Amino acid sequence: MKSIIRIVVVGAAAAVLATAMPTSAFAEDVHVDSRDYGARATWRPYGDHLEITDLEKDGHSAIGGYQMGSDTYYYWNTSGQGTTRYVNLNLPENRAVGIAAATGDYQGTPTGGLRWSTLAVANGYTS
């Protein structure tokens, strides 16, 4: 009888742990604001969408980016306050991804003019 009770208890504990473990099915949206609050990057794992929103009328562009492994990419929204640039990515599934937001003064290259002191990062996952 004790063996049957032990099996039931162990089985119930395993079921609780299995439902508590994060999986790609539970990947969530991630929002990160730049340190000067002039830009917001939003990561939407379903569809691999990155949204870069310019929040302030400050003369700076909004920048959003992501890092996966050793690769880092930055995308600029140069359209001004109140606008959002939508970037549709195609990333591998079930991977950790760092999402970044910053502001800068666009100079024609991905990092030229990026105001590094405004860079803020949050962690997310692909689905």
UniProtKB/TrEMBL annotation:
Residues 1-27 form the signal peptide. Keywords: Signal. This is Uncharacterized protein. It comes from Streptomyces mordarskii.
